[in-house]
User: Which sequence fits this backbone?
């Protein structure tokens, strides 16, 4: 994109955007939930579809002039259904938390009991944390990962579900690196008469590529953001069995949201189209290989990985034996141009603002075309930065090495 009008009309805004483009191009993005969209996805977002109001659904809108918007929403739905083998898809949710709010509203009454994974064990704020709407409106009981293995112990989940008899069980996480046993969750949910809700925001791209088990045919309802491993625009979708279609649609609109963002719906359709291509499967497979290399190389250097490894795109590194906190690691790595985020570890003795770990992911590196040899180099850079924290001249040297690596892998969608 040339941004001709923006550059001329509003250099103040343009200069900020340009600086962010340079940051993204010159730095390594290892935040597990971030990615780079394709130029086609970027272009779809920057279209006149943003001008339209279209409350309602295709063929049933509350505003005139929606014939063409209906086509884009219908196409996005069709592609998402194919990608995830879904009976029904709502493509309007604005992002992950609003999507989850709509799911709860569709299936629960305030005060109903729900089982969700605790935040410091890898769950998400919207899975019942007390400071979040989910924890305020619903009676969440939190399950945990196993103390010894760092993995979800399905026997413990079953025991808790039988004791608590929740109306809903939430599975699918933000900082959990292992495969999820969807069929076992289904069995438990059936035994206690609960709805099963999967939040696959993190792993949707890997599931779409057929590399992780697809929970859509197993669960009652599934939400995902579209901008993580799925590599689409910032937004979300909800998938459910046909028998729940009406209650989900009503819950999204008019329950939670007003007009959908039609330019984003168009970009979602483009991203789903990309994810349906064989090249996406290759991309997703490389994400996992890169992540497993990342885990193994860090382990060789003495770093502890929660659960001992990864089946997906992310790892959580427990830094306790390295003598620094997650915040110190995040800040040190930021100084050399590597973006990561501090993360709690299970049963973290430290507070969430300064927890004991960092979360690292490979979706964005892989979108740049980086493979195993680059990941090995990056692990060396991370380790050197951590070992030399506070040493300005060493950190400067590492930063220039990060930059030279980035130069060899230009970003999609950036036209500097
Ligand atoms: N903020 C996202 C993440 O980083 O996992 C989840 O919402």
Assistant:
């Amino acid at each position: 994109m040339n941004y001709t009008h923006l550059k001329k009309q509003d250099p103040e805004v343009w200069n900020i955007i340009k600086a962010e483009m340079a940051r993204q191009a010159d730095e390594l993005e290892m935040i597990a939930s971030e990615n780079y969209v394709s130029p086609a996805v970027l272009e779809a977002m920057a279209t006149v579809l943003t001008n339209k109001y279209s409350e309602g659904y295709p063929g049933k809108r509350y505003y005139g002039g929606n014939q063409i918007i209906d086509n884009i929403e219908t196409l996005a739905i069709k592609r998402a259904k194919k990608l995830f083998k879904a009976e029904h898809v709502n493509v309007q949710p604005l992002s992950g938390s609003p999507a989850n709010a709509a799911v709860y509203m569709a299936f629960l009454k305030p005060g109903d009991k729900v089982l969700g994974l605790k935040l410091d064990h890898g769950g998400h704020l919207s899975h019942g944390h007390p400071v979040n709407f989910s924890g305020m409106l619903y009676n969440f009981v939190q399950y945990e990962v196993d103390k010894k293995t760092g993995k979800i112990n399905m026997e413990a989940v079953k025991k808790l579900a039988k004791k608590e008899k929740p109306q809903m069980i939430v599975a699918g996480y933000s900082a959990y690196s292992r495969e999820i046993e969807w069929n076992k969750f289904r069995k438990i949910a059936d035994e206690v008469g609960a709805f099963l809700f999967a939040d696959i925001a993190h792993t949707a791209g890997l599931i779409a590529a057929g590399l992780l088990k697809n929970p859509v045919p197993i669960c009652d309802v599934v939400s995902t953001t579209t901008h993580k491993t799925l590599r689409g625009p910032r937004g979300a979708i909800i998938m459910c069995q046909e028998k729940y279609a009406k209650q989900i649609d009503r819950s999204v609109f008019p329950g939670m949201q007003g007009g959908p963002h039609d330019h984003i719906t168009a970009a979602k359709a483009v991203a789903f189209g990309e994810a349906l291509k064989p090249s996406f499967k290759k991309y997703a497979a490389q994400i996992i290989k890169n992540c497993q290399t990342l885990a193994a190389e860090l382990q060789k250097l003495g770093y502890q990985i929660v659960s001992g490894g990864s089946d997906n795109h992310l790892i959580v590194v427990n830094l306790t034996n390295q003598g620094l906190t997650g915040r110190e690691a995040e800040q040190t790595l930021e100084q050399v141009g590597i973006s990561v985020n501090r993360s709690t570890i299970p049963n973290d003795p430290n507070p969430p603002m300064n927890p004991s770990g960092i979360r690292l992911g490979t979706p964005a590196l892989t979108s740049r075309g980086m493979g195993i040899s680059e990941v090995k180099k990056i692990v060396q850079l991370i380790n050197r930065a951590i070992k030399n924290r506070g040493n300005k001249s060493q950190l400067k040297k590492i930063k220039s090495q990060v930059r030279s690596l980035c130069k060899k892998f230009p970003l999609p969608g950036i036209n500097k």
